Amino acid sequence: MEINRQSGDVPTIEDLEMKINLVLPRTFGQKAMSTFNAQKALTIDGLNELHGSLKTCPTEKDLAEDPEGLKVDLMLHQRRALAWLMWREEQRPSGGILADDMGLGKTLTMIALTMKSLENIHDEEDRGAKEDSQSGAKWKGGTLVVCPASLINQWSGEIDRRTRRGKLSYEVHHGPNRDTKAKRLAKHDIVITTYAIVKNESEKEGALFNIKWKRVVLDEAHQIRNYKCQTSEAACRLAAKSRWALTGTPIHNKELDMYALLKFLRCSPFDDLQVWKRWVGMKDRGGEERLHTVISSIMLRRTKAELVEKGMMNALPERTWELIEVILSKKEMAVYQRILVFSKTLFAQFLYQHAEKKDDYRLAESLKSQEGPNAEFFKMRQKLLGLNRGEEVKQSIILVLLLRLRQICCHPSLIKNVSNL
């Protein structure tokens, strides 16, 4: 689903309200009409607020200054994104979706946002203090980054490489020896953890849920696209002033994937499933325009091609392919052919076993025949059965043999002695 995010293309609020009036209730009972009118009023108010916020949205020419303590200079598109991020944190809901293409520096941009916010001395003074909330007293914390386990080192590495020593304090909240004290975690500028730990601590009311974070950042946020899963529900329970979703693919399969992100962002009233289904998730033209208005207000997405066209990013050289054919020597070809015949025979045995399991007797008899297209492998297969002692040929063995064929093309010494085959 491709969405144009230019504010000039967003429908006017008058058009939106006119099409909202065309939506009819499903039933006309007193209770149903009361619910319908309440949802309609909330939808109009929500669209008014989101649409109105676009008036103060930074333009593409508005670039934020690099934060102090950053070792590298931000690129133009990153400075533009930083200005947009800072603007979004002053809006309602505080936060949004950064959906730039992979490789455009979403991680570094979010680190820059954290450093920018720390330039306000009051933010640092309040860190580690307790505040009252509806669910009890919580410690005031910094930025919580939730990401897949494979990206933990990327986040910590970016902080180490791109920021001056001592400028940001961070804690990797991962592994069996992780800190379980909310007070200590709250004192760090950035805490990096995984979706699995958030889910686990949600069930136990762990340290992450005893902190009111300044911001929560979900990296690879499409991990919560199923709003019914426990990971998504746990992420939505985290207490935070600002919420950010980083993903290059905000919509994977259907529009309902976007609802999960709006639920996390607490973008009222569209974080209510009934409101979403009736007023935004509809397949008609009015529903698409309302969804477009919501997304245009809270999401920033740029592609590499788009940035190159606008001159905000240098184009990479065009990729070219050159095929160079190498002729194997006589001995190398002999080794290759021996492994090739063995691989084909083993694959024939794999098919034979698979056919037996599936009761495909016609295929099984064909593979056993001394005549026909499989005849050249019959003798090898008989020897193979003796070597393999009737053991089942697994799919992994076939893949290993394909690897061996590639290694022979590089150099025969990369494989073991095959003289016994």
TrEMBL record:
Transmembrane segments: none annotated. GO terms for biological process: DNA repair; DNA-templated transcription termination. It holds the Pfam family SNF2-rel_dom. Its main location: nucleus. GO terms for molecular function: ATP binding; ATP-dependent activity, acting on DNA; DNA binding; helicase activity; hydrolase activity. Residues 87-268 form the Helicase ATP-binding domain. One of its GO terms (cellular component) is cytoplasm. PROSITE patterns: HELICASE_ATP_BIND_1. InterPro entries: Helicase_ATP-bd (IPR014001), P-loop_NTPase (IPR027417), SNF2-like_sf (IPR038718), SNF2_N (IPR000330), SNF2_RAD54_helicase_TF (IPR050628). Keywords: ATP-binding, DNA-binding, Helicase, Hydrolase, Nucleotide-binding, Nucleus, Phosphoprotein, Transcription, Transcription regulation, Transcription termination. PANTHER family: TRANSCRIPTION TERMINATION FACTOR 2, TRANSCRIPTION TERMINATION FACTOR 2-RELATED. This is Transcription termination factor 2. It comes from Acanthoscelides obtectus.
